[in-house]
Amino acid sequence: MFLLYLCLLQVLTGAQHEPGYCSFYEDCGLNPAVEGALIPPRVPCKDYRKAVNVTGDHYELFKSVCPMLAHGEGKTLACCSFRQLTALQSSLTLSKAVLIRCPSCADNFAHIHCATTCSPNQSQILKITKTANITQPAGMVKEAVVGYEAYVSTSFSDASFRSCKNVRIPATGGYAIATMCGRYGATLCTPQRWLDFQGDSSNGLAPLDINFKLLPDGQTAGLPPGAVLFAGTALNCNETTPTGGEACSCQDCEQSCPAVPQPPPLPEPFMIGRLDGVLVICIIVFSCIFLLLICYVILEYTIRYQKSKGARKGKNTKDQNENEIERKISPKDVTCSDKASLATQEFLGSLFQTWGTIMARYPLIVLPVCLVVVLAFAVGIKDIELTTDPVQLWSAPQSRAMREKAFHDANFDPFYRTNQLILTAPDRPSHYYDSLLFGEQNFSGIISKDLIIELLELQQKIQAIEFWSDELNRTASLKDVCYAPLNPDNPSLTDCAVNSLPQYFQNSMDNLNAQVNMTELGVTKEVDWRDHFIYCVNSPLSFKDITALGMSCMADYGGPVFPFLAVGGYENEEYTTAEALILTFSLNNYARTDVKFKVAEEWERGFLEIVQEYQKNPNTNFTFAYMAERSLEDEINRTTAEDIPIFMISYAVIFLYIAVALGEYSSCKRILVDSKFLVGLGGILVVGCSVMASMGFYAWIGIPSSLVILQVVPFLVLAVGADNIFIFVLEYQRDMRRTGEKREEHIGRVLGNVAPSMLLCSLSESVCFFLGALSTMPAVKSFALYAALAVLMDFILQMTAFVALLSLDARRQDANRCEIACCVTVKTPHPSEPNQGVLLPLMKKYYAPALLNPVSRVLVVRSYFTNNGISVFLQLEALLCPRDSYMLDYFAYLYKYFEVGVPTYFITTKGFNFTSEEGINAVCSSVGCDQFSFTQKLRYATEYPERSYLAIPASSWVDDYIDWLNPGSKCCRIYTAGPNKGEFCPANETGLFMCTKKCMSIPQNGVLRPSVEEFNRFLPDFLSNRPDLQCPKGGLGAYDKAVVRDKETGEIIASRFMAYHTPLVNSQEFTAALEKARELAHNITMTMRNVTGTSQDFEVFPYTVTYVYYEQYLTIVNEGLFNIGVCLLPTFVVCCILLGMDFRSGFLNLLTIVMITVDTVGVMTLWGIDFNAVSLINLVTAVGISVEFVSHLTRSFALSIRPTKVERAKEATANMGSAVFAGVAMTNLPGIVVLALAKAQLIQIFFFRLNLVITLLGMAHGLIFLPVLLSFFGMLHDY
């Protein structure tokens, strides 16, 4: 009997793997072993039987769900009932929602599950491994299959996997396979891991456990007797499907991609031999220039020697006592230039002498009149508008970036406001965790439960911020201003987009503390938060993990948390080794005129207060950096206020120097008589009044100012004003009053001597700055206007108020009255000889002779031209926060730990027909789309991220809209019953027979394209459809604000497609990214304009928040050359005119200023000072200050009557050089050195460093190079 039983068992066992037999059949109910399933886990009944011939409705449904197994009605055998097919169809619909854009992939995926569920040879390709008893509604108990082993050939599994591995999810730019491979994500996914996830009932999607055994074709080892490998025909992704589906697009299938030419290789560095080519050319050019100069000097000396030799032959130059005979100039030797120069100087000297005499004669009338005029201008300061928004400072209102920003903000919400913390725990040791599911994993110190809980507590404290809002007249909180993508109309706190690691646990402490035992492959271990974390960072779109915890990975607001938004500082997607946690609160951005703008700023104030208090807490376990959207502007304003005392000290030092340096100090007893404290103070007040008058005037006419103007213009005017004051006062002190000459006449005569030089510099600078106002940069333009008028007003006040003030002081000094105690007189008389001071004798006796000896002159010219060549080479090769600002730490953390670049939008304007089939194909990237469509080109660009600076393909609402419409998914249905009959029915509608009609029918050619009417009808439903498990393609959150339609016609007038840049860390990369994005957008624009019906003014352009800041770098070189050029031109023209058309002196003057500017840029390169709009303002200032160093000396040389150039250069260096050194260099340097104490990096770099460079280079060129240059090439006038 026992032997008979064994034989029968063997027969039955063998019969379980025979062709034409089923292992299970009919729906048996819900799997009792699956808890927390996302869809009903319906399982089949165990039923070994012959395959059933399907007919009628059964066959029609079978052909719809598994067309690859259908052979015609009455000829098709299957192992699945109608109810099984319905459950299978429902399950496949979820996958089709993301795979349908690639028909062959969707077909292969369905083929796998159709084979195991419905194949007529089902018993041969699988073995039941687990069953369970399920009580039926009628009370009968049936044995249900809850686990089986399927045998699949690797040729089929590998080909199916290849067809699906590149299918994209347009909304995220990622791969669909990442959502179907569990913990492995897209990177580590393999055919085995892909199918394992499909057969894992713990993921909430699979109704039962399936163990897929993948074996090579022909291999029988490991198979039960009679079993065979399923080796169906898998379609390649570039093949059409048997049902008419088109080949997948290039976006989803590499085999479908056309031959795209490789970009040309990057140009090699320009080399000549082994040397830098630019350096070699600079050396050659400047060597040639130097040789030409030497040749010119030799030629000129030869000619002069011949002339002087001939003159000596005809005339005796000494008398009988060997005394030099005074040389008389013949009228024929006087050139037109000499006559013009002399006439100009006589006219200007006479004019200013008369003017000065009048001003000095009536000081008590002049001073009140000047005060009234200044006050009339300065009253406008009460209406002054300070521009602090960096966008308004550096981007011209009509610049491309500003126009594009205006278009974006007018049609879409402004880019949301980011409030972020980046937290690290550098002293925490890492540890290993032996996971039941994932094996041994290395966890960094910061990925620890206690720190995650601490982060969650901080996050919840920030989320709970409340404050009284005057704008809303009620208590406001985060929900009033937060970015809530899935519930934008009436958000709660849990609807606010907060991205952080605790969001993987839905910010629940219970979820974080959850622990449960789990058995895998016979091993039972505890799983906890670490297993859930590992799963979620690799599969962030999952609604349920595969652990026994069964928790979702989605954030509490309903969206996914991508790992690069939760952790940072990892390599090769090893997220458990991350060195930083990232916490981000996203707020809606509002126009500054919107009442909610101040509400958002007030919430950010509370955010900063909590974070700063948390940072000061000694119990804090994190080292972190943070920022709010308002932080940058706050820090600029804060440090500006804090640095005001530094500027005040700087001005005080300058005033003290001027007051002391202007004194004569002939005797200790006369110190208080000869001092010039009041004159120095008067000079400072003249500068202050000129600046206030300028600011008040422009405030009257509505031109805004900026903090840069407040900091730079006073320094500039002080440099100009102090120089003029020193020249005037020193000339007055050195000049003896003539016999019978009144004090007023003496002052007038001195003014007549020096005022033309003062006019030359002031007029040059003023015209220079007025022309600089042609700049397109608002900050540069307003600075130029304010500086131009301030310099002009400074000159006018010096010619009036300061002359009157000097007259009063001279009257006091003549009466021997003390300066401070005017009633006290000193008996010691004023010395009869003029006081030459300290500098003049030193420069006359030592400095000028040493500088202008033959050897020094040649060395100076050679070294200066060499340095200038090096500066040119450095240029060709070629910050707003305080040193103690938390923003500096934030930027450092951002560059170090953030793994993704800024998002960028590719925006379309009005004029393109998205509703036509041709228009759709020109934009989309799924099946049937043009190979070089809009989104396909963006995808091609991401293949070369080092060139395009694009990392992730753009999300495409057009592609997702097409997928959403596809009848293969249940996203778009229509109510067929009930009160909403005929209207859109969402996928989460569960009513039976309520929504039996699909929005569109299956297209014959497999390429779904809605008609114009269908496109316009269902688009609003798509944009308002909240994505969920049943329909992940819903557009709410991802696209509801990405499409703007005309309210009357329904025409799409603007839309946007979001991509991501690669991580950008410096201005060069940000600028290159902008440039490449614009090139790509222009290429797309030109292609799309060829589509029928497209307007020729239609445009695609890129936009992100950083473009308005970095656009200046695209044009900064041209802008700088233009601004500096228009500043240099008037210095040449004015110099020539005021020196009587002396073109040579004008050219030498210009050459020296150019060399100062070029050398300044060269030093900027060496000192790490970026060339941007702020440095451009300082370079324009450098031209103005250079005029002070150069023009006075040039004019002094031109007017000298010494017989030789060298003697004239010595005289000019001693007399005027000493005044320039005392007035410009020594006035600027003390004030500049004080600025080294400033906290703001803006002041540190662009005011301290750059002004120090400008002053030192101006002094070096004006007092060393220019005298030598004039001694060689200056014009020798014969007056």
Automatic annotation (TrEMBL):
One of its GO terms (biological process) is cholesterol homeostasis. It catalyses: cholesterol(in) = cholesterol(out). Residues 1-17 form the signal peptide. It is found in: Endomembrane system. GO terms for molecular function: cholesterol binding; lipid transporter activity. It is a multi-pass membrane protein. It comes from the Eukaryota. The keyword Secreted does not apply. Pfam families: NPC1_MLD, NPC1_N, Sterol-sensing. Keywords: Cholesterol metabolism, Disulfide bond, Glycoprotein, Lipid metabolism, Membrane, Signal, Steroid metabolism, Sterol metabolism, Transmembrane, Transmembrane helix, Transport. Residues 643-808 form the SSD domain. The chain crosses the membrane at residues 277-299, 362-381, 644-665, 677-701, 707-730, 750-777, 783-808, 1121-1141, 1147-1169, 1176-1198, 1218-1238, 1250-1276. One of its GO terms (cellular component) is endomembrane system. Its main location: membrane. InterPro entries: HMGCR/SNAP/NPC1-like_SSD, NPC1-like, NPC1_MLD, NPC1_N, SSD. Belongs to the patched family. This is SSD domain-containing protein.
